[in-house]
Amino acid sequence: MVGSGIIQGKIVDIHSRRIFSGQVEIAEGRISRIVKADAGATGDAGGRFILPGLIDSHVHIESSLLIPSEFARAAVVHGTVGSVSDPHELANVLGMEGVRFMVANGSASPFKFAFGAPSCVPATDFETSGAVLDAEDVDTLLAMPEITYLSEMMNFPGVLAQDAGVMRKLAAARRHGKPVDGHAPGLRGEDARRYALAGISTDHECFSLEEALEKVRYGMKILIREGSAARNFDELLPVLRRHPEMVMFCTDDLHPDNLLEGHIDCLVRRALAQGYDLFDVLRAATLNPIRHYGLHAGLLQEGDPADLIVVDDLDRFTVLETYIDGRLVARNGQSLLEPVAAKPVNIFRARPVTVPDLAVPARSETIRVIQALDGQLVTEATTARVRNEGGMAVSDPDRDILKIMVLQRYHPAPPALAFIQGFGLQAGALASTIAHDSHNIIAVGASDADMVRAVNLLVEHRGGISVAQGEMADVLPLPFGGLMSGDGVETVAAAYQRLDNAAKTLGSPLAAPFMTLAFMALLVIPALKLSDKGLFDGTTFSFVPLFVGS
Fold first, then answer.
1. Hey, is 461 helix, strand or coil?
2. Average pLDDT, the chain
3. What is the mean predicted confidence (pLDDT) over 441-461?
4. Taking the model in full, what pTM does it have?
5. 16-21 CB contacts, 8 Å cutoff, 24+ apart
């Protein structure tokens, strides 16, 4: 469905860097004319400002716990008209079937989804995923018109070593004329230069301003990220002042309660409040991602698709209306898009666990411990004296040293077990089938009994997130790949918030405990993580024993 009509207000022209009163005339979903009002004319809708619609330049829709069509219904409320979406979460569960589901469901919405071909499924060979996408699969996906880029190349060691499979995927992207997204946290110097020279065009994983500026020198665009777990906005925003043509805004991973509150509009507001130039800020939120990825989204020019927003002013930046292809899709905080019916897709073969399955015989007095950091995907690695009860290493809530486990979901297998600091639970346990990137079951707890109960709730529901403590237990089922619900954002956000509150009541100081938990299995981000195969050192890319000196 496309729309026609006239929208009046103050028009924000990013190309000419000017604002003028006038009207936008829309015919059959496109901007047919932009008419500047005569000097002294009245009736221009007062303080209404008309701008291009906003774009999220890198997001995993699955992390919102919503299927694409429901993500769209939530995002348009905040002025987002399109997203550059990497479907590698569901691809790690279901392979090509997962990517095709995301594309098909997204295509049922007018929202401007730009999906990528996942480049790293699985992310590493050190974990068990539900599927593998090889170079031929990637080439098949890149040939699809709905697939606009090669998703983040997390295997930067493979790029630097010129691994044959990695090189074939990069060559496929070049052959199809589609850009390649990067993922190289902390990569600097000659290695970063070589990574960029391989055709990697972006990075959203910079730790510091210095790293980001260095990667800009090598020709990479910087995606400034502010999500639910990883927050780099304040650290990296100065890149915008120095290189406005090289910056985009993204969320990467955004949970439903945060999406309910805001999206890219929040980043625009924050940048403007810090005194950044209006047109540079809007460029990062609209023009740069549209041009870089070749999106079929409009930029408020004659002949463009009528993808635009109306805001109240340029300080509060409250989105009043959102239009896609000239169709009004949101007004005054309410989505006007209809839900899209979808049938769940999933693979889940894990069996229930028992308390003896979680036993860890104490093999020495010292253990390696993962240190989770609030608001970061990276962890630190430390050691600690083991709490030994009857010859078994157990959780020690007094020192915030808790047991963590990863249980493979694709075939019956024993759990991998380790210990972690930073979650702060004084009692109870958390569990989730959102465990980047292979999405096995991950759980952390102050007691083995509570961990078993939390995990078995997920086995019963074939995926979701859960919390358990004694007789108290709660679960949010996620029937779409163990990653997404088919419900709307209000319903999912309320359930997620209930679980999040429960985790914090149990003692967790983390801003987003379940989001942080989900990244404790992401091996490509250092330093110490846990896969279903064991404790993994992300700095040496090798497994390490739990016990020191055993």
1. helix
2. 95
3. 98
4. 0.93
5. 17/279, 19/49
**pLDDT score for 44:** 46
Please tell me the least confidently modeled range out of 191-195, 209-213, 403-407, 515-519.
Answer: 515-519
> How many residues appear in the chain?
550
Residues 6+ apart with CB under 8 A from 130: 92, 93, 94, 95, 347, 409, 410, 438, 439
Beta 366-372 vs 416-421: how paired, if at all? Answer: parallel
| Per-residue model confidence (pLDDT) at position 375 | 77
| DSSP character at residue 338 | P
Instruction: Kindly list the structural domains of the chain, giving each domain's residue range(s) and its CATH number in brackets, ordered by start.
Output: 53-296 (3.20.20.140), 355-548 (no CATH)
pLDDT bracket for residue 378 (50, 70, 90): confident
pLDDT for res 228: 75
Q: Are 110 and 326 in contact (CB under 8 A)?
A: no
Does residue 155 carry a pLDDT above 90?
no
Please report where in the chains the tokens 């090798």 appear, as a residue: 542
Residue 320 to residues 43, 80, 149: CA-CA distances in angstroms? 18, 12, 32
Query: What separation, in Å, do the N-terminal and C-terminal C-alpha atoms of the chain show?
Result: 66
At 1, the pLDDT band (50, 70, 90 cuts) reads low
Q: What is the dihedral of CA 255, 257, 260, 264, to 10 degrees?
A: -40
Q: Which residues contact 457 (CB under 8 A, 6 or more apart)?
A: 431, 464, 466, 468, 473, 475
Pairwise CA distance, residues 325 & 334, whole Å: 18
Cα(530)–Cα(510) distance, integer angstroms: 19
Helix, strand and coil in the chain, % to nearest 5: 30, 30, 40
Radius of gyration of the chain (CA): 24
